[in-house]
Write a structure and sequence with these properties.
Two copies of one chain form a homodimer. Chain A has 229 residues and is α+β, with helices and mostly antiparallel strands. The first copy, chain A, folds into two domains: 3-83, Glutaredoxin (3-Layer(aba) Sandwich); 84-210, Glutathione S-transferase Yfyf (Class Pi), Chain A, domain 2 (Up-down Bundle). The first copy, chain A, is 56% helix and 7% strand. The first copy, chain A, has ten helices and four strands; from the N terminus they run E-H-E-H-E-E-H-H-H-H-H-H-H-H. Chain A has a four-stranded mixed beta sheet, with helices on one face. In chain A, strand 3 (56-59) and strand 4 (62-65) form a beta hairpin. The longest helix of chain A has 22 residues, at 130-151. Chain A is globular, with a radius of gyration of 17 Å. The first copy, chain A, starts with a strand and ends with a helix.
Chain lengths: 229, 229
């Protein structure tokens, strides 16, 4: 069955899906949805995801959206995905779900809205929104110390004391990478105090070489352009 | 292994866990965390959930928080839970994950914040926050028509065209029940236009008799008190 991944490499959850597929030798067709041109709101794309958001996948008869749901599906449906990505052990799996659920209302809620409203809204033809950015910043600055002192509290290279990455590491690190779109000093203000977080990002990059950087290349390029302006 | 459920019956995700256990004959000790007195922020409770939120569970060595993660764990760890709650079929399961992930950033994001900031903040010693309520209302009024026209689009009594409830039905309906805390005319303004949503709420109540109403009784009582004021 053919797998199509609809996304855009500047979208953090899209990158997570693409990196996961590449790291696990899952063949897929990458269909780029042109977000700046509003293609995600087109009737054609809404046939695939009525919510008008990327990423989404089609696999056989299944149309699926929401990146965590997609990661779990791919880890379960494709043989050959190593157990550490989404462990069959119920307790380990439960804790990964807990991280992913926490992510929704905390890190992602803060980071995505902060970057959008303080930096990249004009790319989508929208004005910056300092008030929404300030509100989002509260969630971002509360989330990072929780990752540092709670989710990374156990010895181990990854979240929850694991020595190999899970879908939770991939999802959260791709989210934090979005801070690359900020000015360097702003990014450093957020991440600077959190040494474990910084090390964990490096561990994740290293564990998913060369796919991590290859898929992030589009982000690095947009970042360089924004920082030059 | 003993199961302890830490929660409060006026908390919508706490109710979902308790109802799930009762409906599936899972024995548990209910430990009420006195939210108005701030017991969820106590050092004792933060030993169980460092995020200081209910619900949380302890099952053997496992401490777990985030209600969706808990529901999935309970459905997986206890034999005798009927398959419809969290189907083993990968496609059905994927779609349930998709609903639950969508819920985080949409219905729950809107409903919980609207009810809190427009109505019950004073119970926790906080002022009402009309601006935050207005922001949350946008998410609430966008979410209900999506449930009506998308998640309930297929024939069937429950979400995704199912004829028996899943953990997604339980989670989302418990969230919507929180609107009982609003004045009746405000609640009706939100729910009135959505006949399928209203029918689905009734279907869920009926399918999980008598546990649904029994666990909601505390909410109905608080609602009656607030409406008298």
């Amino acid at each position: 069955m053919e797998l199509k991944v609809y996304g855009h490499r500047v979208s953090q959850p899209s990158r997570a899906i693409m990196i996961f597929c590449k790291a696990n030798n899952i063949e897929f067709e990458e269909v780029t949805i042109d977000l700046p041109k509003g293609q995600h709101k087109s009737p054609e794309f809404k046939e695939i995801n009525p919510m008008g958001q990327v990423p989404a996948i089609i696999h056989g008869e299944l149309k699926l959206f929401e990146s965590h749901a997609i990661l779990i599906y791919l880890a379960s449906a494709f043989t050959g995905v190593a157990d550490h990505w989404y462990p069959t052990d119920l307790v380990k799996r439960a804790k990964i779900h807990s991280v992913l659920d926490w992510h929704h209302s905390n890190l992602r809620h803060g980071s995505a809205a902060y970057v959008f409203n303080s930096r990249i809204a004009p790319v989508f033809g929208l004005p910056l929104n300092p008030q929404a950015a300030a509100e989002a910043e509260k969630f971002l600055i509360c989330s990072l110390p929780i990752i540092e002192s709670f989710w990374l509290q156990d010895s181990g290279l990854f979240l929850l004391g694991a020595n190999q990455p899970s879908i939770a590491d991939l999802s959260l690190v791709c989210e934090i990478m979005q801070l690359e779109l900020l000015d360097e000093n702003v990014r450093d203000r957020f991440l600077g105090p959190y040494k474990k977080v910084q090390q964990w990002i490096e561990n994740t990059k290293n564990a998913i070489k060369p796919h991590f950087d290859e898929v992030h290349d589009a982000l690095y390029q947009v970042s360089a352009t924004l920082r030059k302006k």
